Amino acid sequence: MAIQYDAIIIGTGQSGPALADRVNREGMKVAVIERHLYGGTCVNVGCVPTKTLVASARAAYMARRGAEFGVNINGQINVDMKRVKARKDEVVGQSNTGVTNWLNGLENATLYKGHGRFESPNTVRINGETLEAERIFINVGARAFVPDIPGLEEVDYLTNSSMMEIDFLPKHLVIIGGSYIALEFSQIYRRFGSEVTVIERGPRLISREDEDVSETIKEILEKEEINILLNTQVERLEKRGSQVVVHTTGESGPMEVNGSHLLLAVGRRPNTDDLGLDKAGIEVDERGFIKVDDQLRTNLPGIWAMGDCNGRGAFTHTSYNDFEIIAANLFDNDPRRVSDRITCYGLFIDPPLGRVGMTEQQVRESGRKVLVGKRMMTQVGRARERSETDGFMKVFVDADTKEILGAAILGVNGDEVVHTLLDVMYAKAPYTVIQRAMHIHPTVAELIPTMLGELEPLE
Ligand SMILES: Cc1cc2nc3c(=O)[nH]c(=O)nc-3n(C[C@H](O)[C@H](O)[C@H](O)COP(=O)(O)OP(=O)(O)OC[C@H]3O[C@@H](n4cnc5c(N)ncnc54)[C@H](O)[C@@H]3O)c2cc1C
After folding, report:
1. Active site residues
2. Cα–Cα distance, 135 to 139 (Å, whole number)
3. Closest ligand 1 atom to the C-alpha of 144?
């Protein structure tokens, strides 16, 4: 006999717990299934730990630059990797405990620890029991994609998850992949003191970004002596003693990159392959992402997919926003939609990249009449005062409607400052509103109105 619930939530990523809380407050009996750690990727092996490591890496970087600021450190600067990990574990532990206590405190929720699998459109099997509900919400997230490289089985490799267990300094960390996760780790470990090599098969880093963004990020990382190999294909891997050898071919022919440790950071794949979706009849696309409509409904009535597994976003904020959209539609008679949201995300190297809306390439392809504003960080007082003048900010405006189309702020506090533009975009206000705003001196944000006052047609 199936155990009856009003709702079942599979996975406790960034939308599951919030939805469990809401469903609980609606007085519904809910089963929450989690196979590993409450809080999922972001809390345990994603955003929270990596940003904690970014902070430790920055402390090391600034300590080395001390003398430049008139701060002399008499003695060697060493990074205590055990302390770095312990601090990371403390911060992660607080977040994980927070989610765990939150879920445990929901009076109408029953928590199941184990792997959930659909048996039919309204039943889920977990630890030998069958649960049944009219509403099922999937929040199973994604995991590191492990490519099929010859020799992979003979070498030890790391992913974002196993990187979290490192409490020593890799002598030479070789990273396959040149996108967001790869670049964050590259700078973190370089600043800790490792030699770092990034191998990217494409002609530039983070190819989703504009060329000037990719190029400047490359310069920033190379200034810190991170080796970056572009246009470089990984052919095979080999274990040679305690070393891992990456055999590549590139512009200068075949090459061997000899590292002490190997990190694979070549993308993420949804955790949908072992979920019994076929038994329920839930449709996925060719990459395994669950197909959803603008309200995150799957092809079956009463089943929704939220977060990374639906392919409609790959961020903590998109997953949480998925929860908000579903809750608004189900309980608040508020027809919120995925298409209401504006793309935004950060790349948390130092200095960070904050991105909103369209890229330059996208505005060009849109065929609109576009105005552009650009300002180098060398022209930003706050950046000069901090001796951190790498990067630039740029913004695109629709010449006819005067609405802001997109922006990239690569530089000191770029991840925060970009929200001044994002909020005006949500307000659908013309750029002149923010151009006339008086901002605080001396900040990075004070130059946003100035930049908007100097717009020129996009050539
Ligand atoms: C290294 C790294 C850094 C990142 N940094 C950022 C960042 O700075 N900012 C940002 O916005 N995003 C970042 N992300 C992305 C972010 O972590 C995810 O987008 C976010 O966690 C949303 O995930 P989710 O809600 O889809 O599910 P997840 O957080 O992936 O959680 C899914 C949960 O479901 C469970 N599960 C899966 N299958 C089953 C099953 N069959 N039965 C039971 N339980 C199951 C899993 O154990 C997991 O706990 C980062 C990701 C990584 C890997």
Report:
1. 441
2. 13
3. 53
- Closest by CA position to 355, among listed 425, 306, 294: 425
Which residue, among 280, 25, 29, 34, has the nearest Cα to 133 in the 3D structure?
29
Instruction: Confirm if 257 and 245 have CB atoms less than 8 A apart.
Output: yes
Q: Which atom of ligand 1 is nearest to the CA of 185?
A: 1
- Provide the whole-model pTM: 0.98
Q: Measured between alpha carbons, how far is 19 from 108 in angstroms, rounded to an integer?
A: 13
Residue where the block lists tokens 């790349």 = 347
Which of 429, 392, 453 shows the shortest CA–CA distance to 211?
392
What is the Å distance from ligand 1's center to 40 Cα? 5
How far apart are alpha carbons 253 and 280 in whole angstroms?
Answer: 50
> From residue 36, how far is each of 11, 33, 140 by CA, in Å?
9, 9, 11
Interatomic CA distance for residues 419 and 439, integer angstroms: 14
Note the pLDDT tens digit of each residue in 150-166: 999 999 999 999 999 99
Residue type, 283: E
Quick: pLDDT tens for 166-207: 999 999 999 999 999 999 999 999 999 999 999 999 999 999
Cα 446 versus chain centre, distance? 27
Which helix (DSSP H) or strand (DSSP E) does residue 324 occupy? helix 316-331
What residue ranges line ligand 1, CB within 6 angstroms?
Answer: 10-15, 33-37, 40-42, 46-47, 50, 115-116, 139-142, 160, 181, 271, 275, 307-309, 314-317, 319, 348
Task: Tell me which DSSP letter residue 58 carries.
Answer: H
Q: Residue 36 is encoded by which pair of tokens?
A: 């590993």
What's the 203 CA to ligand 1 centre distance in angstroms? 29
Q: What is the spatial distance between Cα 187 and Cα 226, in angstroms, rounded to a whole number?
A: 7
